[in-house]
Design a protein that fits this description.
Layout (H helix, E strand, L loop, with lengths): L1 E7 L4 E7 L4 E9 L6 E6 L6 E5 L4 H12 L15 E6 L10 E2 L2 H9 L8 H14 L5 E5 L9 H4 L5 H7 L8 H15 L7 E7 L3 E7 L2 E5 L22 H9 L3 H10 L2 H6 L5 H9 L3 H24 L5 E5 H6 L1 H9 L10 H5 L6 E2 L8 E4 L4 H22 L3
Parallel strand pairs: 1-6, 6-8, 9-12, 12-14
Antiparallel strand pairs: 1-2, 2-3, 3-4, 4-5, 7-8, 9-10, 10-11, 13-14
Helix pairs in contact: 1-3, 10-11, 11-13
The structure holds adenosine monophosphate.
């Protein structure tokens, strides 16, 4: 079975086509600048040169049609006809309290996703455009949605509630939802497999450290607490996001700087974090380079960034009354041995012993970076959210087909 994975943004659409018996990516690509005068489709097939096509793509339905044309292209395609796509899986950022797991799309699911637009105004409407665009192009193909928040729906109220008037939770569902759930889910499963231990037996902290960053306490395979909150602004310091701060900073800044609420919101989301403190960049590679060249602001930014990750790991070890495994993943977590070293430096009180050589080794594989005698295993696990979306979609479609075949006619 072939499963097409779609991640639709407001002006972009990423895709990967999986062959599920081998879990091989047949082709992947990206449509950028949807709605602008020159849109770009980039298409990649392993072992072949990348294809780039510039055209006018005004909305998502045309973008999906262009992707399907490319996948079935005589020269650059990997399938003969769209009939060879048996299911489509979509990434959806916010599933609110409604969705605790991935689901097949029907009219009711679409209605519920629409009701959640308020909670993720930048993301969910764009995902819906992707869903409708696929429906228009492939009306008979089943579609599934995989939510970034679903993995965290196992958190207890002690973790997900804010200490504010409960009427705000009851009326508006103001609470912690958490994000990067697909990634935390994938790397925790992969880590347990790598260690050859049942996930249900482990106390784990998974650190998804990329442009956006979050830590999750995973107790016996389930999300117990996570650092992002009602929105992806809370928690760790990130590329351009502030992470945790005293909420009183917001009205204080509005008054002192004569800014609007929207301007402060934009400051906290787009002009804070690594970028603001280093004054150099939101990109960790550039911050590290500046630090190595003696830039003291870059050093401070790097140290604050690592310190906050360490604080969350410590807090979650206390929350779970112990810690067996720490996982690092995503752009920075997978690639920066310097950051991993800085975070782990202050965790020796847990019996954690980093192995310098293992930490510095370059690899795209899951690996252990602690010594054999370390009491806490630290792993680097390359994340693969698309594969998890493809797997969930495949499982749901198979299950529906089985249920149909068992229904007496
Ligand atoms: P992501 O959002 O997961 O794509 O991660 C993006 C971040 O990963 C950016 O801040 C990059 O600078 C960072 N990154 C990628 N490669 C490296 C590297 N070799 N060392 C440090 N940071 C890296």
């Amino acid at each position: 079975m072939n499963v097409l994975v779609i991640n639709a943004g407001s002006s972009s659409l990423k895709y990967q086509l999986y062959e599920m018996s081998t879990e091989r990516v047949l082709a992947k690509g990206l449509v950028e600048r949807i709605g602008m005068d020159s849109s770009i489709l980039t298409h990649e097939v392993e072992g072949q040169p990348e294809v780039r096509e510039v055209s006018e793509i005004l909305e998502h339905t045309t973008a999906v049609r262009k992707v399907l044309d490319m996948l079935t292209h005589r020269k650059f395609g990997v399938i003969d006809s769209v009939d060879e796509i048996q299911a489509v899986g979509h990434r959806v950022v916010h599933g609110g309290e409604t969705f605790r797991e991935s689901v097949l799309i029907d009219a009711n699911v679409k209605l519920e996703i629409r009701k959640l637009f308020d909670l993720a105004p930048l993301h969910n409407p764009a995902h819906m455009m992707g869903i409708v665009a696929v429906e228009t192009n492939l009306p008979d193909v089943p579609q599934a949605v995989v939510f970034d928040t679903a993995f965290h729906q196992t958190m207890p109220p002690t973790s997900y509630l804010y200490a504010i008037p409960m009427v705000l939770y009851r009326k508006h569902k103001i609470r912690r939802y958490g994000f990067h759930g697909t990634s935390h889910d994938y790397v925790s499963q992969t880590a347990a497999e790598f260690l050859g231990r049942p996930l249900e037996s482990l106390k784990m902290v998974s650190c998804h450290i990329g442009n956006g960053a979050s830590c999750t306490a995973i107790l016996h395979g389930k999300s117990y607490d996570t650092s992002m909150g009602m929105t992806p602004l809370e928690g760790l310091m990130m590329g351009t996001r502030s992470g945790d701060l005293d909420p009183a900073v917001v009205p204080f800044t509005i008054n002192k700087e004569d800014l609007t609420l929207n301007e402060v919101n934009s400051m906290l989301n787009k002009h804070s974090g690594l970028l603001a403190v280093s004054g150099v960049s939101s990109d960790m590679r550039e911050v590290v380079q500046a630090m190595n060249e003696g830039n003291e602001s870059a050093r401070l930014a790097f140290e604050m960034y690592a310190y906050r990750i360490r604080k969350y790991i410590g807090a979650y070890a206390a929350a779970m009354n112990g810690l067996d495994v720490i996982v690092f993943t995503a752009g920075i977590g997978e690639n920066s041995d310097l950051l991993r070293k800085k975070v782990c430096e202050g965790l020796t009180f847990l019996g954690l012993e980093l192995d310098e050589e293992r930490n510095q080794a370059r690899s795209k594989q899951t690996r252990r970076i602690t010594t054999d005698s370390s009491k806490v295993d630290v792993l680097v696990v390359p994340t693969n959210e698309e594969l998890l979306i493809a797997r969930d979609t495949y499982r749901l479609v198979q299950k529906a087909a089985m249920a149909k075949s068992e229904t007496p006619s």
